[in-house]
Amino acid sequence: MDSTGQGGTGRPAGETSPGPGGSGRRRGAVKQVRSVVRTRPWAAALFLLPALLLLGALVVYPIGYSLWRSLFDSSGSGFVGLDNYREMFTHPGTRQALQNNLVWVVVAPAVCTGLGLIFAVLTERIRWATAFKLLVFMPMAISMLAAGIIFRLVYEADPDRGVANAMLTTAHSAFTSGAPWPDARPRPDGALETSGDGSVLLPGPAAAGSPALLPLVGVKPQELADAADAAAPPPGDGRLTGTVWLDFAQGGGGEPGVIDPGEKGLAGITVQAVRDGEVVASATTAEDGTFGLPAEAAGAELRLPADNFAAAYNGVDWLGPTLVTPAIIGSYVWMWAGFAMVLIAAGLAGVDRELLEAARVDGANEWQVFRRVTVPLLAPVLAVVLVTLMINVLKVFDLVLVIAPGSVQPDANVLALQLYTVSFGTRTNQGLGSAIAVFLLLLVVPVMIFNIRRLRRERAR
């Protein structure tokens, strides 16, 4: 007999065979725990009591009280049965919140999971993967309230304050020059008239040799810091000449309709000569505001097209009724894409590389390897991330409250915000608020059950 045990098996005597994968040891440990629970149940109850007390105080009691409170009116003294639930589904604010929550559940988890998957796969191919993951995950360290304040500033409509519109206006100005003087307009008592399409007209035919004066006002002084002084039109010599200038002298004084010393010329304005609705000639004003048209423009009507006064491009109304929900979802993705990336990267680290290499040897390109091998192997992890984010977005509250302005908050409303508004707003109705809380719980429970069952199936494997 071998010294290590009976029959030369190499195990000490009396040791249970581990079986495939150590299942024997696991069964032995489970039996030992069960025997302790059966023989000394008071010990198990003593260890579980603090956790059960906390669970009852923080979870069970609030759920039970909310369910009970939802059956009473706003004062809490009159029993109304299911009336609060009926009112909840007929209230326009709750219906809008349901629609927005549906958008959140469909879009936000999918975008976060997709970006997390892309980031996790791409970071395996770059040297500075750790730094990149740190940057992407860093927003998770910021609270929802702080992130809401940050993105409220990012989405400011004024390009001088809002980062998003500052980037858009900068890109827009790189491809289009825009109107030269968007704030300019004719004098209310002057000779110029504004037509229905926004263009400015000098009524009557313009004569060669008789300079045309086109005074404008409304330009901000800071916009004229580099402008040249206005000059009188040069002699015509058979041509049609004139000046477009700001008919305003700083400090006051001057005569309306006359080029006074110190008044500034408006450069870059297009001047058209129009006859019978057709443009016969056009010119652009010089630095001093002067322009010249050929002799054939004589007798035509002078027009400053509306393009000279088109409003400047100021970006997108991110926090308007149309885009407020997508804008807030964008801030949520900024925060939680890093969470998805870290979980998916951890799952990707456990993928058998031999399977990927075998697919490449068989002739699959990188896209086919990703779509047909990597993604199916990561399906359990992707499901965990997706379901976790779905539960999370059903409870989103802080971002909507902070980012959405008060005027468009009803358009960005979600169930959690509706619950808060109804329960603690100007017209409090905690019975209706409790009904919304119970309904929100019922929405979360199926997703949680699905997640728990899936985790049990994974554990059983």
UniProtKB/TrEMBL annotation:
Gene Ontology, cellular component aspect: plasma membrane
Keywords tagged on the record: Cell membrane, Membrane, Transmembrane, Transmembrane helix, Transport
One Gene Ontology biological process: transmembrane transport
Compositionally biased spans, kind Gly residues: 1-11
UniProt KW Lipid metabolism keyword: no
Location(s) in or outside the cell: Cell membrane
Protein origin, superkingdom: Bacteria
SUPFAM superfamilies: Cna protein B-type domain, MetI-like
Keyword Membrane recorded: yes
Residue segments, region Disordered: 1-29, 177-196
Entry-linked InterPro entries: Ig-like_fold, MetI-like, MetI-like_sf, UgpAE/MalFG_permease
Main location: membrane
Membrane spanning residue stretches: 42-64, 102-122, 134-155, 333-352, 373-394, 432-452
Sequence ranges assigned to domain ABC transmembrane type-1 in this UniProt record: 98-451
Membrane-protein topology: Multi-pass membrane protein
Family of this protein: Belongs to the binding-protein-dependent transport system permease family.
Descriptive protein name: Alpha-glucoside transport system permease protein
